[in-house]
Design a protein that fits this description.
Elements (H helix, E strand, L loop, with lengths): L4 H45 L3 H14 L4 H13 L3 H13 L5 H18 L2 H9 L7 H14 L3 H13 L6 H17 L3 H14 L5 H12 L3 H14 L4 H15 L2 H14 L3 H11 L8 H9 L4 H9 L10 H12 L5 E2 L6 E2 L24
Antiparallel strand pairs: 1-2
């Protein structure tokens, strides 16, 4: 059978025309889609700038549907969800990004970091810990370590906190020596509570080496030595601390007085406390000094009046002086006056965090309110 070339001559132009029409249709569709995605994206930005988060989310969802491969839209949408407190939706967005095989390393690390932030914001600390640990070796490494440190400190996992703080210390961006010393002191307290005094003392010695100027390791060491009946060692520890950290003396004045009495160093301790009180009056230092000066079991109560002369507004001194006095003229007035004065004076006995203002009757090295370290001045509220 002969092949008719006329069909070939007719078919080539027809194929060309059909191909051209198909390409035009594809190009129009592509242009339409490209116009739709930027419009939705910029509309979302406009809503966001006007603080209309609901409309911004709707616009970004539309943009993602038009162009599901755009990572930036996913990140913007995930961040919006997190800011609105819709943590589950934020997690789904970032987990979707991490599941994509075509995501490059930088965007994968960014998505992992965003996912960790989602879990932190939602208070899911165990899942946040796992997500943050995966950022080791990335450009988010230090930020992840800081977040892990906060998690471990909040959950009182002191060994893990100390390990993370050691890595941060090695990065040379800031010194974490004082913070690590606190972690070791916390671990020492746990060992001491379990009856392992030797392990506690070893940890306290490490803490003192890490932060030689910090008052906590010697204070905790002296307290442990007193419980073990090693009064002379406790006196030596605290008298040495009085030279390196005199401002913290109100915190350990009572322990110093007990150690001095047990070790027969009352005169030296009285001189030390008297000198510090003259430099900076404090009710805690005063009462330790009064305990040392007591004769026959009676403390010299005129000391409270002397303190009132130096600190006229001291409700603590007034309350404690009145508690030991007998009102001869009308004994019936004493109890209600005493109760009223005690009630007013009680808040003045607290310690106050300088960072957040949280007040407590107990002195904290680690503020329960803002989680700051060493934020409590070693003086009562009344004396600030």
């Amino acid at each position: 059978m002969d092949f008719d070339l006329s069909w070939l001559l007719l078919g080539l132009p027809l194929a060309f025309v059909l191909g051209w029409l198909a390409s035009r249709l594809d190009l129009r569709q592509l242009r339409f889609e490209n116009r739709q995605a930027p419009k939705a994206y910029f509309r979302g930005l406009n809503f966001l700038l006007n603080e209309q988060q609901d409309q911004a989310i709707d616009a970004f969802i539309e943009a993602v549907q038009n162009d599901p491969d755009t990572q930036e839209l996913h990140f913007a949408l995930g961040n919006l969800f997190r800011r609105r407190g819709e943590y589950q939706r934020a997690v789904r967005v970032h987990e979707h990004l991490l599941s994509r095989a075509d995501l490059n390393r930088a965007d994968r690390d960014r998505a992992q970091h965003a996912l960790a932030q989602d879990f932190l914001s939602a208070g899911l600390l165990d899942r946040a810990e796992t997500a943050l640990q995966k950022l080791e070796g990335t450009r988010y490494e230090n930020e992840a370590r800081l977040a892990l440190l906060a998690i471990y400190e909040r959950s009182r996992e002191w060994a893990q906190a100390e390990a993370v703080a050691t890595k941060l210390d090695a990065s040379d961006q800031a010194s974490y020596a004082a913070r690590r010393a606190h972690h070791l002191c916390e671990q020492a307290a746990e060992h001491s509570a379990r009856g392992d005094a030797d392990a506690a003392l070893r940890l306290l010695q490490q803490a003192a080496q890490l932060a030689p100027d910090a008052p906590r390791p010697p204070i905790d060491t002296a307290a442990l030595q007193l419980r073990q009946g090693r009064a002379m060692e406790a006196w030596t520890t605290l008298s040495g601390l009085s030279r390196t950290a005199p401002l913290a003396l109100p915190l350990y004045a009572a322990a110093l007085q007990q150690a001095a009495q047990a070790a027969g160093e009352q005169a030296a301790a009285a001189d030390l406390l008297r000198a510090r009180y003259e430099a900076e009056p404090s009710i805690d230092v005063l009462e330790a000094l009064m305990a040392l000066e007591a004769t026959g079991g009676d403390a010299p109560r005129d000391r409270y009046l002397e303190h009132l002369a130096r600190q006229p507004g001291s409700l603590l001194a007034a309350s404690r002086w009145l508690a030991g006095e007998t009102l001869r003229d009308d004994a019936r007035t004493h109890p209600p006056v005493q109760r009223a004065l005690d009630q007013v004076a009680r808040p003045q006995m607290r310690y106050r965090c300088a960072a957040c203002g949280f007040e407590a009757h107990q002195y904290f090295w680690h503020c329960p309110g803002c989680q700051a370290w060493d934020s409590y001045p070693p003086r009562r509220v009344e004396e600030l």
